Amino acid sequence: LIREVEQHYDEILMCGETEWKQGFIPKEKGTRGRHAKGKAGNLAQRFQQYKTAILAFLRDAQIPFDNNQAERDIRMVKVKTKISGAFRTTTGAEQFARIRSIVSTLLKQNLSVLKSLTFAIQGRLQF
């Protein structure tokens, strides 16, 4: 299955090659340096160059498919504002963000949230 997905990935890039070559920017006479490819060409080159990193989730279950951790971290703020309408003060919003950041970091480090927060409140910052 992994080989099939990688083969399909390569086929898509080969089919797209004709498309991104249309966005090819002609080189001006006398200019030096690398040749400009256009936005599509640059994107395609990155897809080819970083193929193993892009498809790494196929081989390692620890790597998330979408890499949207930032969206997941922000989601709690959005849910809170939907429920309560908004934060009452800027200070409250900053405190909420700080606490969410700490909790998110603890979860990413596979540490117990309750135990770690209890230690922090007691002034023992040894996790």
TrEMBL record:
It comes from the Bacteria. Residues 6-94 form the Transposase IS66 central domain. InterPro entries: Transposase-related (IPR052344), Transposase_IS66_central (IPR004291). Pfam families: DDE_Tnp_IS66 (PF03050). PANTHER family: BLL1576 PROTEIN (PTHR33678). This is Transposase IS66 family protein. It comes from Fontibacillus panacisegetis.
